[in-house]
Amino acid sequence: MALAEEMVKIAVTVNGKRYEDTVEPRWLLAHWLRDRLGLTGTHIGCDTSQCGVCTVVLNGRAVKSCTVLAVQADGGEVLTVEGLARDGKLHPVQEAFREAHGLQCGFCTPGAQMLAYALLEENPHPTEAEIREALDGILCRCTGYQHIVRAIELAAERKEAKA
Amino acid sequence: MSTVIGQPVRRREDARLIVGRGQFTDDLKLPGMTYAVIVRSPYAHARIRRIDVSRALAMPGVLAVFTGKDLEGVLGPVPTAWIPPNADLKQTVHRALAVDEVRYAGDGVAMVVAEDRYTARDAAEAVEVEYEPLPAVVDAWAAVQEGAPLVHPDAPGNLALHWTAGSVDQKAFDEAEVVVRQRFVQQRLIPNPMEPRAAVAWYDPGTENLTVWMTSQNPHIHRFLLSGILGIPEHRLRVVAQDVGGGFGSKISCYPDEALVAHAARTLARPVKWVEDRSEHFMATTHGRDHVQEVELAGRKDGTIEALRVKIWANLGAYLSTAAPGVPTILFGLIVNGCYRIPQASTEVYGVFTHTTPVDAYRGAGRPEATYLIERMVDLFADAIGMDPVEVRRKNFVPPDAFPYTNAFGITYDSGNYPLALDKALERVDYGGFRARQAQARQEGRYLGIGFSTYVEMCGLGPSEVAGAVGFQGGLWENATVRVHPSGKIQVMTGASPHGQGEETTFAQIVAEQLGVAMDDIEVVHGDTDRVTMGWGTYGSRTLAVGGSAVAVACQRLIEKGRRIAAHMLEADADDVAFQQGRYQVQGVPGRSVSFQEVALQAHLAWNLPQGVEPGMEATANYNPSNFTFPFGTHVAIVEVDPDSGLVRLERYVAVDDCGTPINPLIIAGQVHGGVVQGVGQALWEGAVYNAEGQLLTGSFLEYAMPKARFFPPIETDSTVTPSPHNPLGVKGVGETGTIAATPAVVNAVMDALKPFNIRHLDMPLTPEKVWRAIHGKGERQ
Ligand code: FES
Ligand code: FES
Questions:
Q1: How far apart (Å, rounded) are the C-alpha atoms in residues B270 and B190?
Q2: Is the ipTM of this complex over 0.85?
Q3: B248, B250, B366, B612: least buried by Cβ within 10 Å?
Q4: Pocket perturbation via mutation, ligand 2, pick of A46, A101, A107, A113 by most ligand atoms within 8 A of CB
């Protein structure tokens, strides 16, 4: 166990709620979210920063939460899959993943949805090629990606219809 | 009339998964949880000289360190569960932690348990193990040569098994007009479900009950095997697989790791969690495939195939994993003739120990290895006689009127219409038009190729009598209980254990259809040995064909029970009461009817039941299929090879699959997409590589190339429907078809593209380097 003097104070806003905690400097953001906040929707699929299933949005950008230290998020704003739905209503990305069968086992899904969310914030009308390119950030072993691509297209259409 | 079955019903499991409320094993947090890390051998083969755990044990927060010696006499060996008869299987001992010798890089030597995961990791690094490295052998072919280092002293020549099936008269080859021979390497693959393996165990010293939450495709099999290893009686052991993040075969096996976690929980009387990290998965979770195959085909110049002779060396790794001995034998060797009527065929299998990670089932398990071999051979044969590969296929197909068809190995194919699927695929790709485009492109120095795979697979495992006859140490029937509550709401308990395949939805569709109740009134329960009576799990595309059939049979039992109660309520003769769309109806008297759910309430109240009818509304079916099912289809790949870079670009992929009666087309499409992408992954990129010392060179996603979205065009799917005649739903299974069909389709396409370069065959994966070297004469041509 770490010595007390090694512990660092952080304050992070997660899904709109402010959390203060004392953490070891080496803790990964993913572990902090999962183990300390109980936000287990963010999954961990590798130890080499390559699978993307841990993707969350930090200060507006999609990041791999296994590659960010909890201390680096200090003062920042994090959005995880648990924060996507608002007021009991699913986000269009979530609706579209369900509608288009964009998930099978669901393990990569939180990461894939956060990636999709960030992509559509940046580029509301991506082409299929752009979506496939963006999905380079995530590995899914179940879906063959096709229905994920479709889900993101559908989410783009729905977001536009709502706007 | 079908109202729910066959509809693209949206999945019910998604509701929790898209909001991050799935319950994967690592999500579980119990009061007092402790964390385990397994110390693994960095050497492929070494003697353990000394293990010193004192430094680790002294670290604050460390609760225990276990070594192999501590567990001697405490934990039983990890058994294999498939003992093929007449194979001289060497059941060498696999200890939960190695004692004197480690046999692959990744073999467990110690386990550390600590108060938190970071401390456990630190302590694992503080365990000092002194090894004396020994020579290793990693390749199946090399392992059977004279003087190869031995993996187990009691398996001479590293032979784990020798198995044969079928027979071929030598005359068939001596007198053949054409003989084609080829050696194929089926490279080793790493399953890589996105969720690594994990286990949480909790022991209650009061009741002496142990619960293990784990990443399992078959909790009841795990309970059975863990009970033996731990010496905990089965009725005190509960295995739970809540949400499981994919398996692809790798979560079938019983590993030492989950038993170790359970043992630690029992010893410490604290909950223990262990989660494999990805690097560990690459080393310590079973791998797939890994054959060297020698194949000979005898035929006539008119395209008739007369005989097929197959001899393989299957690398089983360092220990016999749970299903491992059955994969390259039974699941491979009995269907190497594919969809073709080949009068004589034989298979000979050498199962070989090496100093590598154990090999077991990986999506398709044996059948992709068989399909690749025969579909490649057909193309090579077509080439040899100058005939179109499509025509050779057509000529040798088991014809539609020959079903049920028994092949040369005694396997009876239930139903099929191979030309129908082929024709549909040909039309979609405009075969004639493609050949013209290909010829034109060649003139321009562009190399297009088309490849076919007219596959058939044997799945829906399977008749339990056959399981016994082929040495599988379990049954292959499936259990379902359909429980109707007084309010009419229904729970369906299934022994299948889906982990991404969507049976919470498709099984509900079956019940909704049969009982005529709303989907929302039905809940499917799976993955818990305390909630589900019995089960054999999800693998071998058996979930729907066997588990779904069990659900259908249980529903039929409820309908019959309800009919007697309804007749009594309606004061009619049971024979005059018809059941349609959820209502019992006195025939010929409109208006005299009662709903299934009303009848269920009366069954529970039991105020006035007909004589001899028991109260309650619940039925259980233990469905034992009479045969396997045989899905089939035609997959077509169109590729372009860039001669300057060797890069293969997949231009089009068409999959026409026949999986019998479709239950949910959306889920079927998803299964096909995922399977195809894995199959293409094997054809073009994936492959586990060891160096001569037994170090895995492809130990992370950086070196092991997983398929990514941008490598693919949209996969075009289509279907034909040839129901299975022997199960109540007419279904066949679709979970593995894509992986089985795709590899030869893609490789055949690349070889077709490379024809102008006179390249006969290249082994998978067809990486740019390999293709470029072949084109430019810088590598071996085979
Ligand atoms: S867990 Fe794999 S990239 Fe973060
Ligand atoms: S849905 Fe299983 S990994 Fe993507």
A1: 33
A2: yes
A3: B612
A4: A107
